[in-house]
Design brief:
- The complex is a heterotrimer of chains A (242), B (290) and C (352).
- Chain A has 242 residues and is of the alpha/beta class.
- Chain A is built from nine helices and ten strands.
- In chain A, strands 6-7-8-3-9-10 form a six-stranded mixed sheet, sandwiched between helices. Chain A has a four-stranded antiparallel sheet with strand order 2-1-4-5, covered by helices on one side.
- In chain A, strand 9 and strand 10 form a beta hairpin.
- In chain A, helix 3 runs parallel beside helix 5 and helix 4 packs across helix 5.
- Chain B starts with a helix and ends in an 11-residue tail after the last helix.
- Chain B contains twelve helices and two strands; from the N terminus they run αααααββααααααα.
- In chain B, strand 1 and strand 2 form a beta hairpin.
- Chain B has a two-stranded antiparallel sheet.
- Chain B has one domain: ABC transporter involved in vitamin B12 uptake, BtuC (Orthogonal Bundle), CATH 1.10.3470.
- In chain B, helix 6 packs antiparallel against helix 9.
- Chain C is 69% helix and 2% strand.
- Chain C starts with 9 loop residues before the first helix and ends in a 21-residue tail after the last helix.
- Chain C has 15 helices and two strands.
- In chain C, helix 2 crosses helix 13, helix 3 packs across helix 10 and helix 8 crosses helix 10.
- Classes of the chains: A alpha/beta (242), B mainly alpha (290), C mainly alpha (352).
- Chains in contact: A-C, B-C.
Chain lengths: 242, 290, 352
C-alpha cells in the first residue's frame, strides 16, 4: 500500500535518512522504532511532503506521491499525528474534528453532515463527552486522542502515528493501545506507528522496522527484532528494556 | 573612473557596514535571549543619535565623547521598557510582543518629533569631514573613526558575552531557556540585563550614526528594517556573521547607489530587504535564527 | 458553542438591527453638524480599512504595511478619474480589482516563494508600502510626483437643473449614508467569508499552520485568498478616501497612519469579533480626531502608540468582548452564559 525506495534526506552534510526502503502492506500495524535521532520523524515528514527527499520514490497505492503538498497527500488518504501535539488550541474538540472532515477529503460533505460525522468519530475515540471543551484545556492523553480523531476525520487509508503513547500513564496507555487496535480491526485502516515505549510497540505491531542513524538495520516480526544483534547494539546504553 | 568610484563605494560600504553591524548586534542580543523582535530598536538608535546631537549643539561635545552618555540614556529607556512593558506579556503569543514594541516605536518616534521637530539633524564636526586618500580611494575621517569605534564596541560586547559569567548566562538562555533555568540561571534578571545591553548598544550606535547621516523622526522604522535584515542574514548570536552581514548590506547598498540613479536610492535598500527575506529567511552566514 | 453556528441567533439579529438603526439616526442626533459628520465619514472609510486588515489577521497573518494597498487604491482611482475620465464609482471598483491583484502578487511572493511567516511577513509588508511610496514619487509623469494630485472628483454627482444645483457632495449627509452602506456591505461580505469554508480554513491556519496542512487545508491557497480579499477592500477604502478628501500625495497616501490605525482599532475592538474592527475604528478615529489632535498638533500618533501598548498589555482580546459579555448577560436576564472553558482540569503542559 505504502512503499518507499532508496529514500535519502540530508540536512546540511548530515544524513537523516540513508537509502531507506520500506513497505507497509494493507491492513497491518507496522511499528517504526529506533533510538533518538534515528530519523523516524524525518521519515514521517518525508512521507507527508513536509520535506522533499534528496533521492528516492514513495508510492502510495501505486502512485508516486513525492512532490505533492502535505494537504494533497492528506486528501489522497494518509493521515498523521504529531509527536508534539498540535491541536487547534482555541477551538472546541468537536470543531477540531469537524475541520478534518471538512478539509481532509476529496469530496467533503456540508457543515451539518460534517459535524454529525465528527461526533461519531469522537464517540469512537472516547471524546464525545468532552466535545465542547476547548482543545487547549484537555489533558495530554485526550489531546493525543484528539489528534488521532482529527486524523481519522480525513478518512485516511493509512495512519501515521508519532509517539501517541509516550508520556501517558499506565491506564491511559492501555486504553490507547486498545483504540489503535480497534482503528485497524473495525475501521480497516493500516497503521504505521513510531513509538518509544517498547512494551506498547511490541504488543500492537505485526511487523517492526528499526532505523538507526538514518539507516534501516532490521525488519521483521516483533520477536525477531528483540533478538536481533544489531538492534540490541543500537539500543545499548539506552534504557529500553525488551 | 568607474572602477575608482566603484572601489571607493566598496570601501565606503564596508565602513558604513560597521555601524550597521553594531546596530544589529543590539537587536540580535534581545532577539536571541528573549525571543523578542524589538521593533522599536530603530527608534532607540535614533534616540541615541538625538541625545548626541543635543550634547553637541548645547555643550559642543564631540559625538564620540557623548557616546557613553547616549548609551546610558537609551539603556535606561530600555530598562523601563523591559521592566514595565515587555516583561508583562512574556506568556502571551509572540505576535503580541511584536505589536507591543511596534507601539513603543511609534511612541518614541513621535516623542522625538515633539522634542526635536521633523527637521533633519546632523552633527557636523569639521575634523570628521576631511578626507583621507589611500591611493585612488578616498574616505572621510569620520567614516574610518566610526567604523573603528563600532568594531571596538562589537569586540568588547563579544568579550563580555564569551568571557564573563553574565555573558555565559546570556548565551545559555539563547541556546535553551528551560535548560538554563534548570542550571540555576535567574532568567528574569538576565532578560533585563540583555534588554538593557541591547538598548545601550543601540544608543551607542545612534551617536555614531548621527555623525555620519542626517536623522529625522521617521527614520526609525528604516533602521529597524536594516538591523532586522542583518540578523536574518547572519543568524542570531554570531559575531563574525553580524559583522559580515553588516558589511554585506553596506557594500550592496553603496554599490547599487553608485550604479543606479540616486533618486531610487531609498528603493534599493527596501528591494534588498525584500529579496533577502524571500530568498533566505534565516541564517545565511551563521547558525539559523529561531 | 462551536464556531460553526447555524442560523444567526435572534439576539445577534436584534443587536445588528439596533446598531444599524442607531447609525441611521446618527446624523439627526448630531444635528447635521458638518464637522462631526465629516469626521464620521472618514471614520467609516477607515473602518473598511480596519476590516480588511482583520481579514488577514483572521488567517493568522499580521501586516505592517496595509498602507501599500490603501495608497495604491487611492492613486489608481484618482488617476483613472482625472486623467482618463473614468466615473468615480467605476474607478473605485477598478482600484479594488487592482488592490486584489496586488494582494495576490504580494501573497504569491511572500507565501509561496519566500514562505514567510509571522514577523518576516509583517515586515515585508512594511517594505512593500515603502517601495510603493518611492515608486509613486519617482514616476512623476504618471503620478505627478511628490506634489500630489489636486481636484480629485467626488464620488457623488453634482446635479444641475433649472439653474439650481444639488450638490450631493458638499452636503455631508448623503456621503454619510453612502459610506455607511459601503461599510455594511463590506461587513456582510467579511461575515459571509468568515462563516464559510474559507473562514474555517482561516481559523485552522491561524491556530496552527502545520496541523492545518496535515488535515488537508491548502494553506497557501487560503492565505492567498485572505490577502487578495484584504487587498481589495483596503484599496477600495483608499479610493473612497481620495475621492472624499479630493487630494492625495505620496507621503500621505502611504503614511504609517494607514497601517497603525487598523492595527490599533482592530486590537482595541477585538480581532476575534467580526464587528470589533469597526467599533474599534469608530472610537479610535473619533478619539484621535476630537482629542488627540487637539492635545498634540504634531505627532498625535504618539497617543495612538501609547494606546496600542496599553491595549496589548491590559486587554489583548479587545473591549468589545467585554461589551458582548455584558449584553449577553443582560439579554439572558442577568444570568451569565455557561462557559465551556475550564470545565475540566487544565491539561498538563508538555515539556517535550
Amino acid at each position: 500500500m505504502l512503499e518507499g525506495r532508496n529514500i535519502s534526506k540530508y540536512f546540511g552534510g548530515l544524513a537523516a535518512l540513508k537509502n531507506v526502503y520500506f513497505k507497509v502492506t494493507k491492513g497491518v500495524i507496522k511499528g517504526l522504532i529506533g533510538p533518538n535521532g534515528a530519523g523516524k520523524t524525518t521519515l514521517f515528514n518525508v512521507i507527508m511532503g513536509v520535506y522533499k527527499p534528496d533521492s528516492g520514490v514513495i508510492k502510495f497505492k501505486g502512485e508516486n506521491i513525492i512532490g505533492l503538498k502535505t494537504n494533497q497527500i492528506c486528501k489522497r488518504g494518509i493521515g498523521r499525528t504529531f509527536q508534539i501535539v498540535k491541536p487547534f488550541k482555541d477551538l472546541s474538540v468537536w470543531d477540531n474534528v469537524t475541520m478534518g472532515v471538512l478539509f481532509g477529503r476529496r469530496n467533503p460533505p456540508g457543515v451539518k453532515e460534517a459535524r454529525d460525522e465528527a461526533l461519531m468519530i469522537l464517540d469512537f475515540m472516547g471524546l464525545k463527552g468532552k466535545r465542547e471543551v476547548l482543545a487547549k484545556n484537555l489533558t495530554l492523553a485526550d489531546k493525543k486522542s484528539l489528534e488521532i480523531a482529527r486524523a481519522l476525520a480525513t478518512k485516511p487509508e493509512i495512519l501515521l502515528l508519532d509517539e501517541v503513547v509516550a508520556g501517558l500513564n499506565p491506564t491511559e496507555t492501555i486504553n490507547m493501545i486498545k483504540r489503535i487496535k480497534r482503528i485497524r480491526d473495525e475501521l480497516g485502516i493500516t497503521i504505521l506507528i513510531v513509538e518509544h515505549v517498547m512494551r506498547a510497540v511490541m504488543e500492537i505491531s505485526d511487523e517492526i522496522m528499526v532505523l538507526h542513524h538514518g539507516e534501516k538495520i532490521a525488519e521483521g516480526e516483533p520477536c525477531e527484532i528483540t533478538r536481533d544483534e544489531r538492534v540490541i547494539e543500537a539500543y545499548l546504553g539506552e534504557k529500553y528494556i525488551f | 573612473m568607474l572602477w575608482e568610484s566603484l572601489l571607493s563605494s566598496i570601501v565606503y560600504g564596508i565602513l558604513v557596514g560597521g555601524v550597521y553591524a553594531l546596530i544589529s548586534m543590539g537587536l540580535a542580543l534581545i532577539w536571541g535571549v528573549m525571543d523578542v523582535i524589538n521593533l522599536s530598536h530603530g527608534e532607540l538608535v535614533l534616540l541615541g543619535g538625538y541625545v548626541a546631537y543635543w550634547l553637541f549643539v548645547l555643550e559642543d561635545l564631540n559625538p564620540l565623547l557623548s557616546l557613553p552618555l547616549a548609551a546610558l540614556v537609551v539603556g535606561s529607556i530600555g530598562l523601563i521598557m523591559e521592566k514595565f512593558f515587555v516583561s508583562k506579556i512574556k506568556e502571551a503569543p509572540a505576535l503580541n510582543t511584536f505589536l507591543l514594541t511596534y507601539g513603543i516605536g511609534i511612541f518614541i518616534a513621535n516623542a522625538i518629533l515633539q522634542i526635536w521637530t521633523a527637521d533633519y539633524r546632523r552633527v557636523n564636526v569639521s575634523f570628521f569631514l576631511e578626507t583621507v586618500s589611500l591611493g585612488p580611494i578616498r574616505v572621510s575621517r569620520g567614516d574610518v573613526l566610526t567604523f573603528s569605534l563600532s568594531f571596538g564596541l562589537i569586540m568588547f560586547t563579544h568579550i563580555i558575552l564569551t568571557k564573563t559569567y553574565l555573558g555565559k548566562a546570556i548565551r545559555a538562555l539563547t541556546e535553551d531557556r528551560i535548560a538554563a533555568q534548570l542550571m540555576g540561571i535567574n532568567d528574569k534578571q538576565v532578560d533585563i540585563i540583555a534588554f538593557v545591553m541591547g538598548s545601550m548598544l543601540a544608543g551607542a550606535a545612534g551617536s555614531l550614526f548621527v555623525s555620519l547621516y542626517y536623522v529625522y523622526p521617521a527614520l526609525g522604522g528604516w533602521i529597524t528594517a536594516k538591523a532586522f535584515i542583518i540578523v536574518v542574514l547572519s543568524g542570531v548570536g554570531s559575531m563574525s556573521g553580524t559583522i559580515l552581514g553588516g558589511v554585506m548590506l553596506g557594500v550592496a547598498e553603496s554599490i547599487a547607489t553608485t550604479l543606479i540613479s540616486a533618486s531610487y536610492r531609498e528603493l534599493i535598500g527596501f528591494v534588498i530587504f525584500i529579496i533577502t527575506l524571500l530568498i533566505k529567511p534565516s541564517g545565511l552566514l551563521g547558525r539559523s535564527s529561531h | 458553542m462551536g464556531i460553526f453556528k447555524g442560523k444567526i441567533s435572534s439576539f445577534e439579529l436584534k443587536t445588528f438591527i439596533l446598531v444599524v438603526a442607531l447609525a441611521y439616526m446618527l446624523p439627526f442626533m448630531v444635528g447635521f453638524s458638518a464637522y462631526i459628520l465629516h469626521v464620521l465619514n472618514l471614520a467609516l472609510i477607515i473602518s473598511v480599512l480596519s476590516l480588511s486588515w482583520s481579514i488577514l489577521v483572521s488567517c493568522g497573518q499580521i501586516s505592517f504595511g496595509h498602507a501599500a494597498f490603501f495608497g495604491s487604491g487611492a492613486y489608481v482611482s484618482a488617476l483613472l478619474a482625472i486623467d482618463y475620465g473614468v466615473p468615480p464609482p467605476v474607478s473605485i471598483l477598478i482600484s479594488g480589482v487592482f488592490g486584489a491583484l496586488m494582494g495576490a502578487g504580494i501573497g504569491g511572493l511572500c507565501f509561496r516563494l519566500g514562505k514567510l511567516t509571522g514577523p518576516y511577513f509583517a515586515l515585508s509588508m512594511l517594505a512593500f508600502a515603502e517601495i510603493c511610496r518611492i515608486i509613486v514619487i519617482n514616476l512623476g509623469p504618471l503620478t505627478r510626483g511628490p506634489l500630489g494630485i489636486y481636484d480629485i472628483p467626488p464620488f457623488l454627482p453634482v446635479f444641475k437643473f433649472w439653474g439650481l444645483t444639488l450638490d450631493l457632495y458638499r452636503d455631508k449627509v448623503p456621503n454619510y449614508y453612502l459610506l455607511l452602506a459601503v461599510l455594511l456591505f463590506t461587513f456582510l461580505v467579511v461575515r459571509k467569508v468568515r462563516n464559510s469554508r474559507i473562514g474555517f480554513a482561516f481559523k485552522c491556519i491561524s491556530q496552527d499552520e502545520d496541523a492545518a496542512e496535515t488535515v488537508g487545508v491548502d494553506t497557501f491557497r487560503y492565505k492567498l485568498i485572505a490577502i487578495t480579499v484584504s487587498g481589495l477592500f483596503a484599496a477600495v477604502s483608499g479610493a473612497f478616501y481620495a475621492h472624499y478628501t479630493h487630494y492625495m500625495e505620496p507621503s500621505h497616501a502611504y503614511s504609517v497612519s494607514w497601517t497603525l490605525l487598523p492595527v490599533v482599532s482592530s486590537l482595541f475592538g477585538g480581532i476575534n469579533l467580526l464587528s470589533g474592527p469597526i467599533f474599534g475604528c469608530l472610537i479610535i478615529w473619533c478619539t484621535d480626531e476630537f482629542l488627540f489632535t487637539e492635545l498634540l498638533t504634531r505627532g498625535h500618533e504618539l497617543l495612538l502608540g501609547a494606546l496600542l501598548v496599553i491595549i496589548v498589555i491590559y486587554m489583548p482580546d479587545g473591549f468589545m468582548i467585554k461589551v458582548k459579555e455584558l449584553l449577553t448577560s443582560i439579554s439572558k436576564g442577568g444570568k451569565a452564559e455557561a462557559v465551556t472553558e475550564n470545565v475540566l482540569p487544565r491539561g498538563e503542559e508538555e515539556l517535550c
